[in-house]
């Protein structure tokens, strides 16, 4: 088991989305580290990607949970996403649906959805 407390973010590969999410999760959940699993348009990738893509994300989440003891998984979407260029409303629906997918994995973690707005502030999304 790793030293320190871990969380996991399934986040867009967009570099602008990394630091705000890491900072927020560390502050809100008292974490020392945040494992990043990145995909272009992460929420859409979980919903509409290939089975291999979804299996890859799940395998990486399992490493974070089983080897690092991650206790929370956040699925993140953000404004101006090149990997999921849909309206904010649609993107939020993708996040909520992806949270339901991740909860169905049955891992012993809390799963939340996060929206990173055009002001780079984070808002929780109800699933």
Secondary-structure element pattern, one letter each: EHEHHEHEE
> What name goes with the CATH superfamily?
Carbonic anhydrase
Largest beta sheet: strand ordering: 2-1-3-4-5
**Straight-line distance between termini:** 30 Å
**Count of domain modules:** 1
Rg over C-alpha atoms, rounded to the nearest angstrom: 13 Å
Fraction in helix: 40-55%
Question: What low-confidence regions span 5 or more consecutive residues with pLDDT below 50?
Answer: none
Shape: globular
CATH fold field value: Beta-carbonic Anhydrase, Chain A
Treating each run of at least 4 consecutive H or I residues as one helix, how many helices? 4
Largest sheet: 5 strands, mixed
The number of strands is: 5
Shape-level CATH architecture: 3-Layer(aba) Sandwich
Structural class: alpha/beta
Average per-residue pLDDT, rounded, comes to 94
User: At the first level of CATH, what is the class?
Assistant: Alpha Beta
Measured by DSSP, the beta-strand proportion falls in 25-35%
Can you put this structure into words, describing what you see?
The chain has 127 residues and is of the alpha/beta class. It has a single domain (6-125), classed as Carbonic anhydrase (Beta-carbonic Anhydrase, Chain A, 3-Layer(aba) Sandwich), CATH 3.40.1050. The protein has helices spanning 18-29, 42-48, 51-68, 88-104; strands spanning 6-12, 33-39, 72-78, 110-116, 122-125. It has a five-stranded mixed beta sheet, sandwiched between helices. Helix 2 (42-48) packs across helix 4 (88-104). The longest helix is centred in the middle third of the chain and has 18 residues, at 51-68. It is globular, with a radius of gyration of 13 Å.
């Amino acid at each position: 088991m790793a030293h320190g407390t871990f969380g996991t973010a399934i986040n867009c590969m967009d570099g602008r989305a990394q630091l705000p999410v890491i900072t927020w999760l560390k502050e809100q959940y008292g974490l020392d580290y945040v494992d990043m699993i990145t995909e272009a348009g992460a929420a859409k990738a979980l919903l509409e990607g290939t089975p291999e893509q979804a299996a890859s994300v799940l395998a990486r989440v399992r490493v974070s949970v089983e080897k690092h003891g991650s206790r929370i998984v956040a699925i993140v979407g953000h404004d101006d996403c090149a990997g999921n260029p849909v309206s904010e409303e649609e993107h939020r629906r993708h996040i909520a649906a992806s949270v339901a997918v991740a909860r169905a994995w049955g891992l012993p973690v809390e799963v939340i959805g996060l929206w990173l707005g055009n002001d780079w502030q984070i808002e929780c999304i109800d699933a």
